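Quick one from the shared queue. A colleague (R.T.) flagged ATP-binding protein as missing a structural entry in our internal table.

Convert sequence to structure tokens.
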Amino acid sequence: MDPIRNPYAPGAGQRPPELAGRDRELAQFDITLERVAAARPERSMVLSGLRGVGKTVLLNALRGQAVRRAWGTGKIEARPDQSIRIPVAQAVHAAVREVAHRHRDPDRVDEVAGVLKSFALKTGVEDRKGMRWTPPIDVVATRGRADSGDLELDLIELFGDVASLAGDLGVGIGLFVDEMQDLAPAELAAVCGACHELSQQRAPLLVVGAGLPHLPVALAAAKSYAERLFRYVSVDRLPRDMADRAWMVPAAEEEVDFEPEALDELYRLTDGYPYFVQAYGKVTWDAALGSPIRVADVRAAAPDAEAELAVGFFGARYERATPAERDYMVAMADLGADRGDGAVDGAIPTSDVAAHLGRKPQSLSPARDGLIKKGLVYAAERGTVAFTVPHFGRFLRSR
């Protein structure tokens, strides 16, 4: 098969040629955009799921829908060692720029730009790396607005002003936050507080966050009302029919088909996880001699996919861990192999990990906390841990 015509895209956050299995979320978000722009009550949204299930792809697709409806949009990627103030200022600046040129009142635009500048310049103790940024706008910062140093209060004032500016045009502002679980608890609380206040005002602004499976729990811990504040969407692996669609639709556009047995084998290998669907689809295409793609082609290509994943998807994460953290993960993998209940690599009690390693649970807390901070495991429930990466236990057991 011609590798130049290969339609599959196993890239981080790269939209696949066929965004299968997300039709419901896309349709619902269109309704949300219309309702918010019409000042009807709606909630912001949170996407959560394991690595490789397509959260970033879906987040970008939702942002694209807002752009097509002429909303002002901005996107940030949260980082555990960086305050949210400057990234939010940069994202809001991008959103304001998208609507400002259509506004008929330049003085009104300048007023909002002044508030944005005031917000951006108010860096303080919450700015953990001392990052500073001045918006490239020729206006004077507005004193006494969005510059108190209290992040929640400043976000409320900033979001309220930019939402009002967009509302003048009958549209809204969308702020899209990837890796949202990496925000500090105080920052999560500030975002929740701002969303709560603006939703009560029915201001046309939405925050759409994406993060690991424990993000809903982190939000609820930050603000007790967060469980009612957002619409939560669990992004999971694709069911069989949607995985088939992800393989077959792009291939059909290149006049290539699959034998049913080849699709059976592909799904067995990938479990429907979107990143794996693209990775195995790509190497299978390159290995196939022609159409239809056969089960023998899938089996011949599988070692190449496994080797690539072992280096880039799994290996890079494993190498980030300290020796103590690796021991902890290997113990999780050993325990997840055969739990006696038919489940594989699900949530593992931390007490079982300690017993497996012959250690006291308290002595393993630094390793566990380090893995959580690095995004390699998450606390599925109190007293348990699970891998954030699908098939990671299988990878560790194969080493």
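The CA atoms of residues 13 and 57 lie 5 Å apart.
The chain has three domains: 23-234, 239-318, 321-398.
Added to the table.
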